[in-house]
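Please, structure for the following, as tokens.
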Amino acid sequence: RWVLSLQCRGSRNFMGALRRAVEVDFKDKDKHKSQGLYLLTTGIPDQETHTISTYVAEVCRGFDLQLHVCLFSATGSTDSSGVIPARYANPRETASAFKEIVQAANGRFHWFGEAGIFESDDITSIMSEMEKAKNYSQKCAFLVESLKQRS
């Protein structure tokens, strides 16, 4: 609800934003079985990955919170105002950092750009299920064929 009133501005102070979200904005957290936060970002946080991962793991365990990250890789190394961020990483390093953070939070990671989807935990899960279904179908077909040959 409050997200709709936000303007696109600020920094990559991930820890500051996360602390605000979990310590201020989750006032009714005890009324819900589980909750999720979605981080929509274009670059690496200002803080070190291991620091964030440690904090996220502790916070998420405390009240069944999952952190999901949607990383958008835009062309170029500057933000919309042309300012190079305080901490820079190439897209692959950025994705790797967020995957580590998401694992600590039992969340999901999605990475996309102008060219399409680079990586998505949801798509990987769907592909895995489809592969299992295909293997099961092949085993069933083999079993049916072997039963036909016995008759």
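The chain has four helices and four strands. Strands lie at 35-41, 65-73, 109-113, 116-120.
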